[in-house]
Amino acid sequence: MPITIINVDESHPEWPVVTLSSVPVPAWADAFNAYCDWAKGSPAPDGVPPEVTFPTVAKETEIKLTRDQIHLHMRPPGTSYVHISAFIDEAIAYANSRI
Prior knowledge:
The protein is an alpha+beta fold. The chain has one domain. The protein is built from three helices and four strands. It has helices spanning 26-39, 56-60, 81-97, and strands at residues 5-9, 17-20, 62-66, 69-73. A four-stranded antiparallel β-sheet has the order 1-2-4-3. Strand 1 and strand 2 form a beta hairpin. Helix 1 (26-39) packs across helix 3. The longest helix has 17 residues, at 81-97. The model has no long low-confidence stretch (mean pLDDT 95).
């Protein structure tokens, strides 16, 4: 069953927390992390389009998957979840496609 977002806590806009529908299996977590790392300059993971341009917010925001939550430290300053939501959706869709 695909993992989805069930809640986004934006009570602290610079530190939003995304709650997922379940705790990911290790292969899902690896795929999610690989997609996020790709935006930061790591090699492209398997099965992605050859040329993708990432927004600055995806390149600079700290993204940490912890059990069933994604913790974000938004960068550059002044950005919020709305600025990175499409990227997070893409990373989740990629991870779902890899399991």
